[in-house]
């Protein structure tokens, strides 16, 4: 699978607006309006200040022995972090899905950059998908770019995945990304999730991601 960087497009405010819409169930309406009318003024976004220097371990690294029993008791993976996906917003062929990374362990965790992603089909075979660092050329939405994010226990970071619809066989799910393996960063342990409805990415072969950003709402 190829991973490439995309050029930045609209201001960071657009990313925050899209993420807020996804998490509140408003969908992609505002973002699609901006695609149709680039001069439209969007809502102001809250800036997330980068975290300061920290010695916290990178998210996805295996925690110490003291973390294992408490996190397992709470249904937390051995890595001390948990990946969940939100509802897919779908309008006019543009898809977007929030991906949340939660520190469910006992100590602080740190992440800096983009998620590491692998998409598999209904038979768990790898799909030919190019994962982009940034949402372009799928949509002209900017992302915050790599910056250090430190998560205390219970805190979360979020990335937004975007793609364009391609025909999927509803009966066989051929062309659908049924299983998505997500890690906080390359080299970290991946966690497999099954997004509701799957990623109807078909043969378009492109999946955009935004850099991890701390959830503050």
CATH homologous superfamily heading:
Immunoglobulins
Order of helices and strands: EHHHEEEEEEEEEEEE
Q: How far from one another are the termini?
A: 34 Å
Helix content: 10-25%
What fraction of the residues are assigned to beta strands by DSSP?
25-35%
Name given to the CATH architecture: Sandwich
Tell me what the structure shows.
The protein has a single domain (3-37, 54-214), classed as Sandwich (Immunoglobulin-like). Helix content is 14%, strand content 28%. The chain has helices at residues 12-24, 29-36, 65-73, and strands at 3-5, 81-85, 89-91, 94-103, 109-112, 116-120, 130-133, 148-151, 156-164, 179-183, 191-193, 206-209, 213-214. Strands 1, 2, 3, 4, 7, 9, 12 and 13 form an eight-stranded mixed sheet that branches. Strands 6-10-11 form a three-stranded antiparallel sheet, with no helix packed on it. Strand 10 (179-183) and strand 11 (191-193) form a beta hairpin. 37% of the residues are buried.
Short overview:
The chain has 217 residues and is α+β, with helices and mostly antiparallel strands. The protein contains three helices and 13 strands, in the order βαααββββββββββββ.
